[in-house]
Write a structure and sequence with these properties.
Elements: H1 5-16, H2 22-34, H3 36-57, H4 76-88
Helix pairs in contact: 1-2, 1-3, 2-3
Length: 89
């Protein structure tokens, strides 16, 4: 049975907390194979998790909290879409 995108988002969050195993994990990975938007969401929350972990480890330090994280940048298309959505509201 294929899970829907809402369930995929829930399971992606659970995966970050390592609270998902077995068939629930397999169903998530199957959904991610089929759904590009959920793959992007999964990648984004994974990046946020790594960022918050890094900041937590370096709190109180004068070092750059973003140092050591992958240097991933938004595409120009993504920047344009974000700007458009922000100006609509």
């Amino acid at each position: 049975m294929m899970i829907n995108c809402k369930e995929s988002a829930i399971r992606s969050s659970e995966l970050l907390d390592r609270r998902i195993k077995g068939m629930r994990k397999i169903e998530l990975w199957y959904h991610l194979l089929m759904c590009k938007l959920c793959r992007m969401y999964n990648k984004q929350i994974s990046m946020l998790g790594k960022l918050s972990q890094t900041i937590g480890q370096r709190s109180g330090s004068t070092d750059d909290p973003l140092a050591g994280l992958p240097d991933e940048k938004l595409s120009e298309d993504a920047k344009t879409r974000i700007k458009q959505r922000l100006t609509i509201q």
